[in-house]
Design a protein that fits this description.
single chain; mainly alpha; 78% helix
């Protein structure tokens, strides 16, 4: 195992945004690592592994700071279970598909989905949406599919999607972190069962850098107002989606 020091602040910053807004780690980090010369087949399992660790850890800290209530029997706990179970199904299908589709198509697909939901969240940020288990289930499956084919695109859809179906922003961020951690673990397992190994340098470097940011992010969320959180979620989704699409054109 070898730690690549320059990757620590990169992973730290991307995860700080992710644990603060429920999105941005894989969606931002994956293209940046590609610019640095890493291949997608090396990046995605490493990103998934680091998100497995940070996702579960973020759930603990969000609970400690009062951002969510994940005790068994609560609505937040039930939402987490539903999203996790559906996500497992979605990511299993997506990982196999990811090995047989061109990278440019994945980028366009993720960019369009994330941009679209970001715009909707911003347009509806002042409205109180009615909670719907059916819509939540559909968005959870779609988000997991995104995660499996690209290593990113899960947080924006599942966090923004929760806001659209009536989950309060602070709770949505915490729930997304835990569900993403479980989903990422399944993705890593599937890759390994298909002969893909974790990079001994990239994986620990990303994981260490990301873990260090989690408690800071949970504290930030506990101090933000609901309106600001919702606006930040929508704005970040729009920025991430637009960035993904612009990289394809430039």
């Amino acid at each position: 195992m070898h730690i690549i020091l320059p990757l620590l602040p990169l992973a730290f910053f991307c995860e700080l945004v992710d644990s603060s807004l429920g999105m941005g780690y894989g969606t931002t980090l994956t293209p940046l690592l590609m610019i640095l010369g890493y291949e997608p087949i090396v990046i995605v399992p490493s990103v998934l592994f680091s998100e497995f660790i940070t996702g579960l850890l973020s759930g603990f800290f969000h609970q400690e700071f009062g951002n969510t209530n994940l005790h068994p029997g609560t609505r937040d706990f039930k939402i987490t279970v539903v999203l996790s179970l559906l996500s497992i199904l979605g990511v299993v299908i997506a990982v196999f598909i990811s090995m047989n589709i061109p990278g440019w198509f994945v980028k366009v697909y993720i960019g369009v989905i994330v941009t679209g939901i970001g715009i909707i969240v911003l347009l509806r940020r002042s409205k109180n949406a009615k909670f719907s288990w059916k819509r939540l289930a559909g968005l959870g499956t779609l988000a997991a599919f995104n995660k499996g084919i690209s290593g990113g695109g899960y947080g924006p859809v599942v966090t923004g999607g929760q806001v659209l179906v009536g989950v309060e922003g602070r709770n949505a961020i915490a729930i997304a972190g835990v569900a993403e951690g479980i989903t990422s673990a399944v993705g890593v397992l599937i890759f390994m069962l298909n002969g893909v190994t974790l990079d001994p340098s990239l994986t620990p470097s990303l994981t260490l850098g990301a873990v260090l940011s989690v408690p800071i992010a949970a504290y930030i969320v506990s101090k933000m107002s609901i309106k600001k959180i919702t606006s930040a979620i929508g704005g970040t989704m729009l920025a991430l989606g637009s960035y993904t699409l612009l990289r394809i054109l430039l």
